[in-house]
Each structure stands twice: as structure tokens, then as C-alpha cells.
Amino acid sequence: MFKKIFGSSESKPKKEEKILPWQALVDVNQLGSITEKSLIKPQLIFKHSTRCGISSMVMKQFVSAYDLELNADLYYLDLLAYRDVSDEVGYKFQVMHQSPQLLIIKNGVVVAHVSHGGINEIDLKLYN
Q1: Which residues lie closer than 8 Å to 104 by C-beta, 6 or more apart?
Q2: pLDDT digits 0-9 by tens, 24-35
Q3: Which helix (H) or strand (E) covers residue 63, if one does?
Q4: At the topology level of CATH, where does 19-127 sit?
Q5: The pTM is what?
């Protein structure tokens, strides 16, 4: 009876957290490399606001659903810590800033961009 009320002292196996192959986007000079690499395979930029609950929720869902078999490079941009990089992403790829936001870059241009709940609705395999 006590186990039902207070739980068991036995530890439950914890669900392993998926680790994505994030690359930190911290310098505007990386954008040239991202553009070049996009000629070979898709480049994904996830712009995240670390102070926004919605951004955190969307990011957790994105991580959970992300297919590790995708042939794409995945960049993480903390837009509060690297505001200048975030601004340059908008200028270079001609995309209005939103947060959270996912940009898909192929052949040097943004072929799709989504924000908020749309991030978890987009089929990334269509851009592979």
C-alpha cells in the first residue's frame, strides 16, 4: 500500500535522452561555411531563445522527434548570447527573425523556414 502512495524506493530506469549532433553557431564567419556546405547537403539552423518557455518546449519536441539518420548538418544558435549572428542570419538568408525558428539551407539559399509549432510539423526528409 505504501509503495502505491509514496512510490517504490527501487529506482526506475531513466529514459535515455537523445543527443543531437548540434554544432554551435557562434560566429558570423560560420555562415560562409554553412552556405558552401549546403551545396553538398542540407544545413539546418535552429534559432533558440533560452529565456522563452515556448522556445524550450518546441526544442524538446524537436530533439525527441529528430531523425538521426538525416543527412544534414544541424546548427544551434542561442540568439540571446549571439544576437549579432542571429541578425546576420536574417540578412544573409533574407528571413525575418522569429524565435524559435528553423531554417533549411540548400544550394546556398533558404528553401524553407518555420517557427514555433511549425518546426515540429515540417517533414525534414523532403529536403534531404
Answers
A1: 42, 43, 44, 110, 111, 112, 113, 122, 124, 127
A2: 999 999 999 999
A3: helix 53-65
A4: Glutaredoxin (3.40.30)
A5: 0.86
